[in-house]
């Protein structure tokens, strides 16, 4: 009987184990929550950076289209001037 009175009651062991498990679960849940919050903040930062990148790309595309239109117009003007000058040149006969 002395041994039985010295050992904790199996029910007490179970309760202590449950309490310890609950504490571990709370700590784990808190760590997971913190990790999720960090990932959420990182996602928001990356999303904002991506939106900024998309906006800059759109602006760059628009500037490119304007420059391309200007270049096409310069080519048209250059060709017209070349044709004016070429048409004013006297015609050479027989390779002269």
List the helices and strands and how they pair.
Blueprint: H1 2-6, H2 10-88
Summarize the structure.
The chain has helices at residues 2-6, 10-88.
Can you describe what's shown?
The chain is mainly alpha-helical. It has one domain (2-87). It is built from two helices and no strands. It has helices at residues 2-6, 10-88. The longest helix has 79 residues, at 10-88. The protein is rod-shaped and about 125 Å long. The mean pLDDT is 90.
What labels describe this entry?
single chain; mainly alpha; rod-shaped; 96 residues
Low-confidence stretches: none
Would you tell me the structural class of the helices and strands? Answer: mainly alpha
- End-to-end separation in angstroms reads 134 Å
Q: Estimate nothing, just give the exact number of structural domains.
A: 1
Number of strands: 0
What order do the SSEs take from the amino end to the carboxyl end, as H and E? HH
Residue fraction in strands: under 5%
Shape: rod-shaped
- Output the radius of gyration: 41 Å
Main beta-sheet annotation: none
> What's the helix count?
2
Helix content: over 70%
Overall pLDDT metric: 90
